From TrEMBL:
Domain of life: Bacteria
InterPro entries attached to this UniProt entry: GcrA (IPR011681)
Origin species: Parvularcula lutaonensis
Annotated spans, Disordered: 142-166
Pfam families hit by this protein: GcrA (PF07750)
Protein name as catalogued: GcrA family cell cycle regulator
Amino acid sequence: MAWTEERVEELKKLWAEGHSASQIAARMGGVTRNAVIGKVHRLGLSGRAAPAKPKAVHHEPRVSAAVATASEAPERPAVRSVLRDLPPLTDLGSSRLTVSSIGTDQCKWPIGDPASEDFHFCGQGATGGKPYCAYHSQLAFQPSTSRKERKSREAPALPRPIRAVS
DNA sequence: CCCTGATTCGC
DNA sequence: GCGAATCAGG
């Protein structure tokens, strides 16, 4: 399908009305949203009414600011009790697991000081899309506190999942 | 995973 | 000029 006068006309109109590229593509037919966007750009009418863009930040080399914000919160009594009933955690040679080398199926429980050289992750098998291995999942996802202390509950006992590098 | 626009580049 | 592929982001 070619961009005839009429079609370009309608494109301009719809775009000006604020329809998205995909909406325009669907309405006009014969073109994909990519085609629409491409045309919009070539017509020089990109950027609609005052979205107030921050400034050309598009497509810049992205610095991975994925600084591990993990904290090795000291284990609290409640956690310790859980710990007691769990099988010992076999120590993998995990000192090399860094935020960038850890796999999606590896436990991301932080070990050590994030600011330290030897900071690493547990690294044991983490299944079901969980960020932690079975062992650490039990620490991370503490059962709901008994309705008794409901009121004073808060502070999720431990480290929040490290955001996997997507 | 759904969507958005932006950019690149072979055609 | 065109638009699919790809990217970056919401």
